User: Fold this.
Amino acid sequence: MGGIFAHELGHIIYSKMSDSSFHNGNMYWGEGSASWAAGKYYLQWQGYQNYESAIKEIVSSKRFYDIKNIYSETYDPAKQRDVIYLEWASFIDFLIDKYGFEKFVVLSSLFASVGKELITKDGSPLILGDDDELWKAFCKAGGAKIHFNNELELAYGKVYSKNFYDLKKQRKLKNKIIK
Assistant:
């Protein structure tokens, strides 16, 4: 019970820190951040001592998911949710350990802004909720997915001078994850 409470409290902390709802931008970043913020309570609730032991067990049991940006992946959340949350928390822990907490805060703020504003075909900004029909058409055409993926990728480059895949590769090498 303490792990669930700590995770949900992590969402509140993340929302206050990034001045946004946790699901803006990259949903898994928000879930991973909440799991990371819950720290040992979340790990113990999941049955692990630390992120290293969690990742080792996930890899050895062939449940390793290989995290991706949210808008470009398909998944079955009921089967993989806890694994995905742990992998994101481990990735966030790696980034904070290697690059510092301040960069985590900056990236979280950039992610929180993704999706608040979109650009329409004529170049004018589309604020979510302003025009529901235009928003639905934009999403149906795949524009939202492309926009979100591009913005999320740009955010990693702005903060870390590396793209998501290079950062993920660094984490895999550090944790000796071969895939």
